[in-house]
Amino acid sequence: MNVYQNPYNVAKMKEAHKLLTELTYEKQPLKMGYANRTLHINVSENTITSKPVTQEMKDVFTGGRGFDMKLLWDATNENTKWDSPENEIVIAAGAMGGITQYPGAGKSIVCGISPLTGAPVDSNVGGYFGPYLKFSGWDAIEVQGIAEKDIIIFIDGDAGKIQIFEAPEEDVNSHLLAEQMCDMFAKNEQEKKAIATVSAGVAAEHSFFGCLNFSFYDRRRQVARLKQAGRGGLGTLFRHKKIKGIVCKFSQLQADSNHVADLDRIKEIAADYHRELYEEDDKQCDMRHVGTAHLVELMNDYDLLPTHNYKFGRHDKAQKITSHVWREMFTQGIPDGCWYGCTMQCAKSVDRYTLRTGPYKGDIVSVDGPEYETAAAFGANMGIFDPHFIVEANFYCDTYGIDTISWGTGMSFVMECYENGIINKEITGGYDLSFGRGEEAIEMLHKMARGEGFGKIIGLGIRRMKKLFVEEYGADAAFLQDIGMECKGMEYSEYVTKESLAMQGGYGLALKGAQHDEAWLIFMDMVNNQIPTFEDKAEALHYFPMFRTWFGLQGLCKLPWNDVEPADNGETDEPAKVPKHLQNYVDLFNAITGNNIDQQELILQSERVYNFQRVFNLRLGFGTRKHDEIPYRSAGPVTNEEYLSREERYDKQLKEKYGWDPTGKSVDERRLKMRFFREEAYQKLCDAVYDRRGWDNNGVPTIEKITELGLANSGVMEVLKKYYQ
Amino acid sequence: MNIMVNGESMAWQPGMKVRDILNIRNYTFKMLVIKVNGTLVKRAQWDSYRIPEHAEVSVIHLISGG
Question: What does the pLDDT read at residue A444?
């Protein structure tokens, strides 16, 4: 239970509510994973309407992210910007979302036109909202418009009622709002499990990378815990619409709330998986004890842990933030699933943590995480190898509504700029922002929350900061382009990609920006040397993004796919695909929906949505080859310091791989020659991937491909014609 | 004399075991599949399986994380 020095008063909050509109609706049981209708709310006009889900919509877009993108497309046009009233927050669960038998089935997928990139973005998140929304009768919710004053949207799935009311008294910061919503809408402690809230904090109002927090009530800890839809600034969009919270109440969860086609088959598949997880996890990734933080030492060992703004891949102090530290700090022995039935239990938490800084200094709180990305970004990339700093900053990023990846990578960029004299104390307001400066870094976070000083500048994100630093402080634009780790406007997540061309493509060719959730190929490429040719890499950059898109169509978490594997997985023909789990997903989909797909159709379901999203990018002026360009630090050493840190490896490559003898050449000459070869390789990779995906050499899906996928409707063709005239 | 490990040349030593390769290359990941000249070497054999001269060794790191 959190302990606050300034308790809140829910009765006073309720008194201040002003009902703007409400709708009662007839509840209908789900049919084989679908509610068959979606909810549309316009907060400018205070309207609430229902839309049917057609069979065609299911056939083409499947669900989840597919429904999100289709609804967002229909709601917007080629001129829509992130802050246009017609832009939407769209949230969906997917047909498999909410099953309680198989692990990792509680994900929500959120989409919108991104404040950070200007293009459509998708972000997945745990917590209970998506499943509760579906069981309340809605496959997706669209929220359009901009409210006049701060509002809360309340979906009562028990009563079949939706309300929008002005809510002036509730806190904005998520750790408080999520608890307030439990206190407000649950009749008693037991019923708090029925409350799921979507929120964003105050810093989301002053930055372009605000995140959304999705809550679930942890009865053992008596805390409303928070999971994040981190990427792309959807929290910023949320607060721009003046929404404090979207709350869903659903207390009637049953083993078959999805009304699936074959529950016994699902139980059979799941029982086998649970046994496997129980037997193998401790020997493999140890997700149940340390979650994704197990990756810290691994990335450091393989020279992949981003250190000092991705200059290096390891650090001598890394052991201060490796998993043994988190194992001690995380509470062990308490179920940690972020949805019912998930025995992976990787949603770890630091409990009874006393805050040391900021507006809640002295409060005792539970902090979700840190997960790998956060520990790597705050610890190694910013050079602050202090677990307490990481936990403190993690808490504030979450409650303020800030994406830890964009903030961590953005701060790392700022720190390198500071150490290079591009910015100085005069610009930062007197703060030394060198690598390793934890106190100053956390103060920047609090300033961002208040919309003050240089903290607010950091909230612009790297792309906008580069422009500002060039225009206002005379920075070298080319250097900033090389070291500013963003693609399409989105900050890189936390992996060093210099030695893996395929992973450079994994970031650069991802639809939404530099996130690794489409393809994580570093081991296959750099370590295993399994995909040596451009064609091999292109095949991987086709298959894995398509397969992993599928999780978003279904409301699934990726982790149960390959963070624990069957004991004999290595003996299969394609262990990287984890064939047994892949077949589990096919069988589960069929058992839920009554369909009869195979592995090929699974990929096709993704291809339809993936190509549609690429066309959506094109519609908004993005999505061509130039938008897939990556900063050079993603591909190779920008500075002589970096070159010398791996001198032997680079010299060897120049000689053996590229046939250029480095003997007697200066570091500058060798570094520039390496750059020539690596930049050329990335362009060849783009050619190969575009070809494999059925796109032209500008990265535009061909008419043939779009037709083959059944996407050749008038809106899509209108967009493509502009590129093919 | 050399062996090939994941396509790269590596010095061979008499009596070399699978475990020695993992230590030299700092392969600390737990989810590995190891084949020597195409033959699967199970985890229980890593400390005892001798690497022959000129062997082709593949140490496949399965994907996790990410």
Answer: 98
Architecture of domain A501-564+597-724: Orthogonal Bundle (1.10)
Q: Any alpha helices (H) in A256-403, and if so which ranges? A: 263-280, 287-290, 295-301, 323-329, 372-375, 387-400
| CB distance A354 to A363 below 8 Å | yes
Instruction: Give the number of beta-carbon pairs within 8 Å between A and B.
Output: 72
Q: How far apart are CA A142 and CA A42, in angstroms?
A: 8
CA distance A190 to A128: 15
Element (H, E) at B41: strand B39-41
For chain B, what is the radius of gyration of the CA atoms? Answer: 11
Q: Which of A285, A516, A521 sits opposite B64 (nearest CB)?
A: A285
pLDDT-derived band at A104, boundaries 50, 70, 90:
very high
Lowest mean pLDDT of A19-33, A311-325, A427-441, B51-65, name the range: B51-65
User: Which two three-digit tokens encode residue A549?
Assistant: 């898109």
Q: Do B8 and A301 touch (CB under 8 A)?
A: no
User: Which sign, positive or negative, has the C-alpha torsion A314, A317, A319, A321?
Assistant: negative
Domains, chain B, with CATH or none: 2-61 (3.10.20.30)
Domain spans in chain A, listed from the N-terminal domain onward = 10-249, 285-491, 501-564+597-724
By C-alpha distance, which of A155, A195, A150, A196 is closest to A170? A150
Position of tokens 């409400």?
A22
Q: What share of chain A in percent tops pLDDT 70? A: 100
**Where do the DSSP E strands lie in A329-433?**
349-354, 364-368
Residue of B nearest to A573 (CA): B33
Distance set, CA A154 to CA A48, A137, A185, A292, A497 (Å): 12, 14, 9, 33, 44
Alpha-carbon span A657 to A32, nearest angstrom = 54
* DSSP state at residue A545: H
Contact in structure between A322 and A300 (CB atoms under 8 Å) = yes
The domain defined by A285-491 folds into 1.10.569
> If DSSP codes are grouped into helix, strand and coil, which group holds residue A462?
helix
CB-based contact A38:A62 (threshold 8 Å): no
Structure confidence at residue B65 (pLDDT): 62
ipTM of this complex prediction, to 2 decimal places: 0.95
Instruction: Name the residue with tokens 């535009």.
Output: A700
Q: Report the helix count and the strand count for chain B, using DSSP H and E.
A: 1, 5
**pLDDT for the residue B54:** 96
Q: Tell me, what's the pLDDT at B64? A: 66
Q: Which of A294, A301, A524 sits opposite B63 (nearest CB)?
A: A524
Q: What is the pLDDT of residue B62?
A: 87
B66 confidence band (pLDDT: 50, 70, 90): low
pLDDT of residue A431: 98
Q: Does B61 touch chain A (CB under 8 A)?
A: yes
Do A259 and A29 contact (CB within 8 A), yes or no?
Answer: yes
User: Which of 3.90.1010.20, 3.60.9.10, 1.10.1740.10, 3.40.50.2020 would CATH assign to domain A10-249?
Assistant: 3.60.9.10
Taking an 8 Å cut-off on Cβ atoms, the answer to whether B63 and A523 are in contact is yes
* pLDDT > 80? residue A711: yes
| Average model confidence (pLDDT) across chain A | 97
**Mean pLDDT on A70-87:** 98
Residue type, A233: G
Q: Where are the alpha helices (DSSP H) in A569-621?
A: 579-593, 599-619
- How far out from the chain centre does Cα A420 lie? 31
Q: Do B60 and A528 touch (CB under 8 A)?
A: yes
